[in-house]
Amino acid sequence: MAIKILLLIVFFAVMIGIGIYSRKNATNVNDFVLGGRGVGPWLTAFAFGTSYFSSVVFVGYAGQFGWKYGLASTWIGLGNAFIGSLLAWLVLGRRTRIMTQKLDAKTMPEFFGKRYDSKALRIAGSAIAFVFLVPYTASIYNGLSRLFGMAFDIDYKVCIVVMALLTGVYVIVGGYMATALNDFIQGIIMLIGICAVIAAVLNGQGGFLNAIKELSVISADDVAVPALQGGQGLLASFFGPDPVNLLGVVILTSLGTWGLPQMVHKFYAIKDEKAVKTGTVVSTFFAIIISGGCYFLGGFGRLFDNPAIYNADGSVAYDSIVPQMLSTLPDILIGIVIVLVLSASMSTLSSLVLTSSSTLTLDFLKESVAKNMDDKKQLIVMRVLVAVFIIVSVVLALNPPTFIAQLMGISWGALAGAFLAPFMYGLYSKKISKAAVWASYIVGVGLTVSNMFIGFIKSPINAGAAAMLAGLVVVPLVSAVTPKLDKEFTDEIFTCYDETVTVHKTHSLEE
User: Quick one: 311 exposed, middle or buried, by C-beta within 10 A (0-12, 13-18, 19+)?
Assistant: First the structure.
């Protein structure tokens, strides 16, 4: 117990210290929200990765999808790495940095407002971000409850309040730079922790080969599609017992990052070309280890099948699977796991509350209520709203109603379904119309929310994936039949890609 408490004290002290150290880099709106667009490659890469993976992935998703798909759930982690990280950086990274600087856009709704010349799009985008980011913020606490109960036998409510308070302090004091520095440290902890945990869990099962052997004799009848029912060994197979639904999970959790405001926001703050290239490699490597490791670990969850992971009605309590896997580890490793999950949770929480407060201040209040708000007042309002968002998320996490629990599960689908297509196409094409962006908003939010109540797509995850793919089709189709933006207006925006820069021969062979 002393080891676990000491690790937590050191962890919290470092987080607060970094917040105080970073306060000099949060004296105006640009610095507070974007770190002055001067964040280096390693900080940007780790900020992207740690915001991507929270306790929801480590405890909830790894347990749930590992139980359903076995070792094939590792494909989700690889999809996160190569689609959600590598491709996201290659397709969006550089162009996002260039165009958002040209437009002087600090948030995703502000990008929509300025790129498509529409104040209404900006305000509507802000409303969508607010509605679906708040329950997502509340959800990240859930992964901590059983772990803290296992490790410390203390009230879950105390854990939530302490974590929220500490995160709030360093975000309010240090802004984006504090979150980036803390994300870097938290990312290193996550890398070390996941490797140690996987090694310890497999060792406890007699080693890697024996664990696979034991997994291969378990039937997956309860999760398999009819065509694959009755076959042993599917949980240790290449594509698992349910490849179709597995693909839906890969699409939602990988392609989703392309349209999430708190993820794309990291590209706004990139410092230079080196940061883009290094960040692409580092964030991909980080995702392979963290996400791939989490889902790989979860794939062995059925080896820990016992009454402790079932609800009273006999259903599987997915959030209990990973804690049960970890319960027999040595105290030092449990302490590392606690810090690992805290790191994952606090990094995501800080990113979400900073994104929420900045978009509500800059895109809603300043555009509709307090139009004459100066830089100093904006900074004060954002700091107040960080505190408000954290308080709201704590209240929701302490007393989560069923509706909120459902809403949090589809928040990725709604946000990415609404934002992904118009954002990505807007970086590349001059032909995207204002009506197409409205259509994407309606399809993304409408499909996921209506599915919540009607249930025409059985899996909420598949519904979210469908919303994203639908946006990618709807936006170009609507743009083809609706009026385009003024040609001079769009040409002026796209001049940002035509500026000439001088580079060394090592980067270009042009004479």
Answer: exposed
Contact of 216 with 208, CB cutoff 8 Å: no
Model pLDDT for residues 352-391, shown as the tens digit of each residue: 778 888 888 777 777 777 777 777 888 888 888 888 888 8
Task: Say which residue, 342 or 127, is predicted with more confidence.
Answer: 127
Distances (CA, A) of 27 to 43, 104, 239, 367: 20, 18, 51, 22
Distance CA 276, CA 298 (A): 32
Residue 509 burial (10 A CB sphere; 0-12, 13-18, 19+): exposed
The per-residue pLDDT for 224 is 47
Q: State the DSSP H helix or E strand holding residue 191, giving kind and residue range, or none if neither.
A: helix 156-204
Q: Which residue matches tokens 């004296």?
A: 27
Identify the weakest region by mean pLDDT among 275-279, 318-322, 381-385.
318-322
Instruction: DSSP letter for 80, please.
Output: I
SS3 for 231? coil
Q: At what angle do helices 156-204 and 273-298 cross, to 10 degrees?
A: 80
Domain ranges in the chain are 2-400
Q: Does the reported pTM lie above 0.90? A: no
Which SS3 state, helix, strand or coil, does residue 238 take?
coil
SS3 content of the chain, % helix, strand, coil (to 5): 80, 0, 20
Q: What are the tens digits of pLDDT across the range 232-259? A: 677 777 888 888 888 888 888 888 889 8
**Could you identify the residue written with the tokens 């609706």?**
482
Helix (H), strand (E) at residue 129? helix 119-139
End-to-end, the C-alpha distance of the chain in Å comes to 65
- Helices and strands (H and E) in the chain: how many: 23, 0
* CATH number for the domain running over 2-400: 1.20.1730.10
pLDDT value for 114: 93
Q: 431-465 b/e with 16+ CB inside 10 Å = b?
A: ebbbbbbbbbbebbbebbbebbeeeebebbbbbbb
The average confidence (pLDDT) of the chain is 82
Residue 4 has pLDDT above 70, yes or no: no
